[in-house]
Design brief:
Helices cover 70% and strands 0% of the residues. The protein has 2 domains: 5-58, no CATH class; 81-297, no CATH class. The protein is mostly helical. Helix 12 runs antiparallel to helix 13 (243-263) and helix 13 (243-263) packs antiparallel against helix 14 (268-290). It contains 14 helices and no strands. It is elongated.
Length: 299
């Protein structure tokens, strides 16, 4: 209680204490050593014993935003009209660029400029220092630029499909975050929570992949499916506190794709599928390991 006093005193509820303890390496085994069944039981006692008012007076916190008592904006339970418009804008803009046969660099620039506001609002918004967030964004942009402007590039129509999936990606991320937080209360241990959240995460990943494949099939080509799956997995990791892993996966895909395209210029499409597909599978596996933890869902 003394060692983690500041974190406990600043928590909004016992579930945030449990997430904080797990993030600091406290396990159910440690909790049993302290005569508690699991970390959730330990968190309940710590939250009850550490006074909120005294601790907050001693360590003033930044002024909270109205959306959440701890200053971190919790995603709105339903998408607002402005958010819907922001998430639809990239798809609409890229569709217009495809209809006008815009040059490849222009199409990528249009996607980047219109997606930027959407990725800074709602369930796909990441928090933390810019030093951790910016590299992932630059790697994602490099991946899109390589897919559209490299050898054997995808069409602007494929780029428009990727942009159109931004709205379902946000909807799936919103649903997953809400369902995972709802599972905190009925869970009896960290393992219990992870076991309940993991199928929801699989459903979100599979839902996005199915949506992307259907839209690409309507376009007549499945090129770009590996890129989309990789970007969604990386974004989920960034949203849930693992931006460095997301950056590493994206950077590895960019480097591998560039190398394979240079060695096999006539098979650039195969190089894209291999590099991005392998990175997408690796990040999805890391998602299934990292995101079901309670510490990835701090309230």
């Amino acid at each position: 209680m003394h060692h983690h006093h500041a974190m406990i005193a600043g928590a909004a509820d016992m579930w945030e204490v449990a997430a904080g303890l797990e993030a600091r390496g406290v396990t159910d085994v440690d909790a049993r050593r302290l005569r508690h069944r699991d970390v959730f039981g330990l968190a309940e006692e710590l939250f009850a014993r550490v006074p909120r008012k005294t601790a907050r007076t001693a360590t003033p916190a930044p002024a909270p935003r109205p959306e959440h008592p701890r200053g971190r904006a919790r995603p709105h339970p339903h998408p607002r009209p402005r958010d819907l418009a922001l998430h639809l804008l990239p798809g609409a803009a890229c569709s217009v660029a495809a209809a006008l046969h815009a040059p490849a660099p222009v199409a990528v620039a249009v996607l980047a400029a219109t997606a930027w506001p959407a990725l800074h609002r709602g369930p796909l918004r990441t928090t933390g220092r810019a030093a951790a967030r910016v590299p992932a964004a630059l790697c994602a942009l490099a991946l899109l630029a390589l897919a559209r402007c490299g050898p054997d590039p995808v069409g602007t129509g494929t780029l428009a499909v990727l942009a159109l999936t931004l709205l379902p990606a946000a909807a799936l991320a919103r649903w997953f975050a809400a369902s995972a937080r709802a599972q905190l209360a009925p869970s009896h241990s960290l393992a219990d929570f992870a076991d309940a959240v993991r199928p929801r995460l699989l459903a979100a990943l599979a839902g996005y992949a199915a949506t992307l494949l259907v839209l690409l099939a309507l376009l007549g080509s499945l090129r770009g499916s590996a890129v989309g799956a990789l970007l969604f997995s990386a974004r989920l990791l960034s949203v849930h506190g693992a931006p460095r892993a997301a950056t590493a996966g994206l950077a590895a895909a960019v480097a591998a794709q560039a190398l394979l395209a240079a060695l096999l210029p006539v098979a650039a499409g195969t190089a894209e599928a291999a590099a991005c597909g392998a990175a997408a599978l690796a990040l999805a596996a890391h998602c299934l390991h990292r995101v079901p933890r309670a510490s990835a869902h701090r309230t």
